[in-house]
Specification:
11 helices, about 290 residues, elongated, two-stranded antiparallel ribbon, mainly alpha
Length: about 290
């Protein structure tokens, strides 16, 4: 077809609305196909090495249960009216979920920055919100798989009873904890320039906050100053709320009403954190420079 005819056809089609004007976005609203594709890509990435990403964390967390039960759970020790192993198990499950949510989301952008493949995430027609949503959703998915693997291992351990008293608390606090760490992991991967930086955040921020959040003890046993510090640690509310879902008791309280404020607070905290991550992604800081 002659060039003149081709241009005429294109102009005519544009007038009829078959093609958008130049500079106008072709995809409006949420790019569902792109978002789903990113999510599936991230899920397949960790499923390819599931021995390392799902089962290994399950085994290592299970070893925590064995070691602390042997060291601290002798002579029929009870906490909150249950044996020590049953008390510790829920906290270890959600701790494993949170740590692996962080590991998954913190690897996504950082590996692209180091390997030079980050353009594969930035060039597709995905908004900053869709990019964040796909990575965070995949990290939460991995957290759920790890939580299931850990729970399965602990259910087989003698003395552990994983009966669920409040399903809403297990689901809500589990998802809020995984989402919080997924967002923190994404923020860490934006800031980090090499794997050492990411490991520093994990070792000096995430691990201490996890271990000093009442996973292995009641904060009532601490001095008043340390109790106050524990109560500003968001990990404490995740672990205590998750434990409440299994035992019907926690450091926060023994009723649904006592946990509602903590549940709302975690939701608000995650919304604020998501907004911060979104604005950082939008700015292109340490990504597009």
């Amino acid at each position: 077809m002659p060039n003149g005819d081709a241009s005429f056809t294109e102009e005519s089609a544009g007038k009829k609305g078959r093609f958008p004007e130049r500079g106008q976005p072709v995809i409006t609203g949420i790019n569902r196909v792109g978002l789903w594709s990113l999510y599936i890509k991230e899920v397949r990435r960790f499923l390819k090495v599931q021995t390392q990403t799902i089962w290994a964390p399950g085994v290592s967390t299970f070893l925590f249960l064995v070691i602390f039960t042997v060291a601290l759970g002798r002579e029929g020790r009870e906490v909150l009216g249950v044996n020590f192993a049953t008390f510790v198990a829920p906290g270890l499950i959600v701790m494993g979920m949170m740590q692996n949510a962080f590991a998954n989301s913190s690897f996504s952008l950082l590996s692209g920055k180091i390997q030079g493949t980050i353009i594969d995430l930035l060039m597709p027609p995905l908004s900053e919100g869709e990019l964040m949503g796909g990575i965070v959703a995949a990290a939460v998915t991995r957290a759920i798989f790890v939580g299931g693997a850990v729970a399965l291992a602990m259910a087989l351990y003698p003395g552990v009873e994983l009966g669920i008293a409040h399903w809403w608390a297990v689901i809500w606090f589990g998802l809020m904890g995984a989402t919080m760490l997924a967002l923190l992991g994404l923020l860490a991967s934006i800031w980090s320039e090499k794997f050492d930086h990411n490991a520093a955040v994990s070792n000096f921020v995430i691990a201490p906050l996890s271990l000093l959040s009442g996973t292995f003890y009641l904060i009532d046993n601490l001095a008043p100053a340390f109790q106050a510090i524990s109560r500003v640690n968001p990990f404490f509310y995740v672990i205590s709320g998750f434990r409440f879902g299994f035992l019907g008791q926690s450091d926060i309280g023994d009723t649904n009403a006592a946990l509602v404020n903590s549940a709302i607070g975690l939701g608000v905290f995650n919304l604020v954190l998501a907004f911060i991550v979104y604005r950082v992604l939008k700015s292109g800081w340490k990504i597009r420079s």
